[in-house]
Amino acid sequence: DTGVSQDPRHKITKRGQNVTFRCDPISEHNRLYWYRQTLGQGPEFLTYFQNEAQLEKSRLLSDRFSAERPKGSFSTLEIQRTEQGDSAMYLCASSLYGGVASNEQFFGPGTRLTVL
Amino acid sequence: AQKVTQAQTEISVVEKEDVTLDCVYETRDTTYYLFWYKQPPSGELVFLIRRNSFDEQNEISGRYSWNFQKSTSSFNFTITASQVVDSAVYFCALSEAETSYDKVIFGPGTSLSVIP
């Protein structure tokens, strides 16, 4: 399968715990995006990377949220001291940017987080 | 102000009926893309269509058709002869050239139920 993959698909945690999600983009894609989707809403942009550089993080919801893409391939999204309001689906997408590439985003299956 | 509006929160139709999902968008950019995504109960976002702002031709793909009208900033989606498998949440979305198409802005979604 050469699509975007995310791990885990589901995560249940207790309030106050830290969680980390992983996203593996399509292999030749240089841009990677994180979105959050709460119940009954459309996905909301959080942050994105060009290779290993994080180009925007102003939309990260608080300083408890951080994302990395250390080698320009897979990315992790960490939430520290989780709160019940963090319960949501976290979606990852990747795209090929530059030249004649269309920068079209391809989405992964998401990680569904439940904070008890 | 919401950039993508989907006024219909929930729609129910009986199988084989036609149904139109409305989408109204707002942008100052002259170059943008519009999208429709389907999200079945499994949660994965399924890409349906991307339309460039310069291409106002309507498109038909099987039972699906899209009506893009720049004059009214609308990009409506019609399913002909609906089937139970069409039951899902449908999202209209926008990405703009001024952000290099990096931020996909989603509408709140329309939940479609097709009753057998």
Account of the protein in words:
The complex is a heterodimer of chains A (116) and B (116). In chain A, strand 4 (31-37) and strand 5 form a beta hairpin. Helices cover 0% and strands 47% of the residues of chain A. Chain A has no helices and 11 strands. The mean pLDDT of chain A is 92. Chain A is mainly beta and 116 residues long. Chain B is mainly β and 116 residues long. Chain B has no helices and 12 strands. Chain B has strands at 4-5, 10-14, 19-21, 24-25, 32-39, 46-52, 59-61, 64-69, 74-79, 88-96, 105-106, 110-115. In chain B, the strands form 3 sheets. In chain B, strands 2, 5, 6, 10, 11 and 12 form a 6-stranded mixed sheet that branches. In chain B, 31% of the residues are buried. The chains are: A mainly beta (116), B mainly beta (116). At the A-B interface, strand 4, strand 5, strand 9 and strand 10 of A face strand 10 and strand 11 of B.
Please describe the topology of this protein.
The complex is a heterodimer of chains A (116) and B (116).
Chain A: E1 5-7, E2 10-13, E3 19-24, E4 31-37, E5 44-50, E6 53-56, E7 65-68, E8 75-79, E9 88-95, E10 106-107, E11 111-115
Parallel strand pairs in A: 2-11
Antiparallel strand pairs in A: 1-3, 3-8, 4-5, 4-9, 5-6, 7-8, 9-10, 9-11
Chain B: E1 4-5, E2 10-14, E3 19-21, E4 24-25, E5 32-39, E6 46-52, E7 59-61, E8 64-69, E9 74-79, E10 88-96, E11 105-106, E12 110-115
Parallel strand pairs in B: 2-12
Antiparallel strand pairs in B: 1-4, 3-9, 5-6, 5-10, 7-8, 8-9, 10-11, 10-12
Brief rundown of the structure:
By secondary structure, chain A is mostly beta strands.
